[in-house]
Amino acid sequence: MKLGDGEFLLPERRARIDEVIANRTRSLVVVMEAVCDPQNVNAVLRTAEAFGIQELHVIEGPMKPFDRNKKISQNADKWLDVVRWKDAGDCLRALKARGFLVYATHLGEGSRDLAELSFAQPVALVFGNEHRGVSREAVALADACYAIPMRGFSQSFNVSVAAAISLARAVDRRLVERGRHGDLPPAEAEALRLRFYANSVKQRVRVAKAERSAERRAQRSR
Amino acid sequence: MKLGDGEFLLPERRARIDEVIANRTRSLVVVMEAVCDPQNVNAVLRTAEAFGIQELHVIEGPMKPFDRNKKISQNADKWLDVVRWKDAGDCLRALKARGFLVYATHLGEGSRDLAELSFAQPVALVFGNEHRGVSREAVALADACYAIPMRGFSQSFNVSVAAAISLARAVDRRLVERGRHGDLPPAEAEALRLRFYANSVKQRVRVAKAERSAERRAQRSR
Predict the structure, then answer these.
(1) Which of A79, A162, B55, B141 could bridge B29 with an S-S bond, Cβ 3.0-4.6 Å?
(2) CA–CA distance from A206 to each of A100, A210, A217, B157, B179 (Å)?
(3) Chain B partners within 8 Å of A23 (Cβ)
């Protein structure tokens, strides 16, 4: 049984997957540096997925290694590429070597307004720890630091809110500056399509099994 | 002791309050209809405050009356005007009578993209229940229904994320279409200034008391 060929899926599900693939990108990526609260990590993953982001980088904090939180990886890894790092420098240098501009959310001297940033090139958006923000190393390696204008007494946005506002802006700008947002090269799109087909088939098999056993239980109790 | 005159506050605190007041608005308001999770309500209040929104309307759901959640009102009511309603129709008709256009987040026939909406006039943004969305009554009363484009498998944004993306967009458009975001009339600004001064003085008195009693405890334990 070849799971990747999609013949076990309903045409609607295949069409949905194809639509998602067409909107997927790896030229805008999200980096979470030492974000501690698993709820926040999950919220950022969910929001990024909804914006068509395929690739996220998670840099472990000193407090709580990301790997130990099973719930996160189980929900997200199937549909996203989550890359884990132990060191912020290694992660950001690798992204820069691949041609990404690194924009770190950080309010300091020389910080710019989110609205001023260009998204014509591939961009990695870096979000820092809930309390300490991004590290000095990340600030030093960033091509730009930016902040979302705050107009009230609150000193900061929740990290998932900051990610949502940044990604919404980034997608808008990409449509203007690059003409499109989803931009996987054909070979990558095809590989991802087969993976998503396979994931969906496995999901259907699981659901069908669960339904059958629920039915059997119901019959027995009659 | 007149708390409202601000003479008990440090000049920096007074300047901060004045800056917040200059960025405050009541011509963009947020309506939450039957949002159940107090964490979500709090997150929306915090985000709205950060965007300079002064007035929020909370319509009680059938499940959990908003009033009973003390934590929410204690944190937010001091710096925001949170108006509670039992009926969505009453709330939205009152806002329309005051000249607000009502935009409800709802994906249906005739729904528009957030990016298409005009914010030249006063606008009330309506966010619905986490599971059921906005009510039929709210959809019927809305001047427009809108959705935030979803590009992945996720079917919806978390309500606080949807509010953040909508408010960021609304503020951007207001700056373009109205020339400014903060726009309290002088008399309203002055009334709010006195209230914020008074809140801040009370806060200082509380902090000072807490510090003194902590000091006494520390001295006793020496």
Answers:
(1) B55
(2) 39, 6, 17, 26, 55
(3) 151-152
